[in-house]
Automatic annotation (TrEMBL):
Protein name according to UniProt: histidine kinase
UniProt record, GO biological process: cellular response to phosphate starvation
Record bears the keyword Transferase: yes
Stored Pfam families: HATPase_c, HisKA
CDD domains, per the entry: HATPase (cd00075), HisKA (cd00082)
Species for this entry: Acetobacterium bakii
GO annotation, cellular component aspect: plasma membrane
Catalytic activity: ATP + protein L-histidine = ADP + protein N-phospho-L-histidine
Keywords for the protein's UniProt record, in alphabetical order: Kinase, Membrane, Phosphoprotein, Transferase, Transmembrane, Transmembrane helix, Two-component regulatory system
GO molecular function, one term: phosphoprotein phosphatase activity
Predominant place of localization: membrane
Length: 337
């Protein structure tokens, strides 16, 4: 519409110019030449405006096609767009490619979260099934059978044990899911690691005493480290608790701290049965338990939770083990803020 108005204005100006020449000079030849020149100029203007319209139309058509690729999630075709040249279309293509990369990343993240949620629901269902079945059987036995008081008391204690296991499972799963979802923000502060170790050791003192397992701690009284004391203590407690569970009576657990240049290393060594090297990666998986450990109480979430906590602080956990002699779990936490 704008181009048509420009062309109409130019035509009106030409007609006015011809009329002016004819009225002022009364020269038909000069007027005819002027008419031809103006017609030629109008023709050139028309060609230029038509060319501009085609260029603009092609430009917007290309944008439309590229946006269709984006809406249709044709990411491979989008990656083939020309965005390396110094043109306006190339700059627009750069933005389209960037948007496509963001959408693809969000799509992968969403799919990963969906798979993680499905896995979590499956794990919870599997783990809850056993104690719930046991509770149902115990309830029916107590309700429908005439039992001696001693037997009834024994079954009630068993029910209490199953309820404790169920409560521990649900509490652990809530912590894990909140950590994975980022709902729990770890607060790293420069605190004394000795106090964090003391808090972790205090939680396993009773079960260790029952098995006559002394816990030796080698750490300076003042060992400042940038970490979250509460959650780090929980992670170390989970590792130490496993050490007590899988160690024989009258054995020994050793906890030592080494200050390195970039990391602080916390070694937790036991004299337990040991872990096959092929299982080093598996033991940190959620709910993983070896066949030989099924008789020992536990649900297989402690090491998984410990690794999540340490990784949230930009640290990592390693394990070394010798079958029949014991295992050493090494926790590495960065020294820098």
């Amino acid at each position: 519409m704008k181009n048509k108005m420009i062309f109409l204005a130019a035509a009106i100006c030409c007609i006015g110019y011809w009329s002016y020449l004819f009225l002022c000079f009364h020269n038909p030849v000069l007027t005819a030449v002027s008419v031809l020149v103006c017609l030629f100029l109008l023709w050139l203007l028309y060609l230029q405006m038509s060319r501009t319209e085609r260029i603009v139309a092609d430009f917007f058509e290309e944008i439309n096609q590229n946006l269709d690729l984006l809406f249709n999630k044709s990411y491979e075709s989008i990656n083939n767009l020309n965005f390396l040249e110094e043109t306006l279309m190339a700059r627009i293509n750069q933005k389209i490619v960037r948007i496509a990369e963001i959408l693809a990343a969000e799509r992968k993240k969403s799919a990963k979260e969906k798979m993680s949620l499905q896995s979590l629901i499956s794990d919870i269902s599997h783990q809850v099934k056993t104690p719930m079945t046991n509770l149902k059987m115990l309830h029916e036995t107590i309700q429908h059978r005439d039992l001696p008081d001693a037997k009834r008391t024994e079954l009630l204690k068993t029910m209490g044990s199953q309820l404790d296991k169920l409560d521990f499972l649900l509490t652990s799963m809530v912590k894990t899911s909140r950590l994975e979802a980022g709902l729990i923000q770890l607060k790293k502060e420069e605190k004394n690691l000795f106090n964090t170790l003391a808090a972790a050791v205090s939680g396993i003192t009773v079960p260790a005493d029952k098995k006559n397992i002394p816990i030796e701690v080698f750490c300076q009284d003042q060992c400042l480290l940038n970490h979250d004391p509460k959650w780090t203590a929980e992670a170390l407690f989970n590792v130490m608790e496993n050490a007590v569970k899988y160690s024989p009576q009258n054995s020994r657990i050793r906890v030592s701290v080494e200050k390195w240049e970039m990391y602080t290393k916390i070694n937790i060594s036991d004299q337990g049965r040991g872990i096959p090297e092929a299982h080093y990666g598996k033991i940190f998986q959620r709910f993983y338990r070896e066949e030989s450990s099924q008789a020992i109480e536990g649900i297989g979430i402690g090491l998984y939770l410990a690794r999540e906590i340490i990784q949230k602080q930009n640290g990592y956990i390693m394990v070394q083990s010798v079958i029949g002699k014991g295992s050493t779990f090494s926790v590495f936490l960065p020294n820098a803020f």
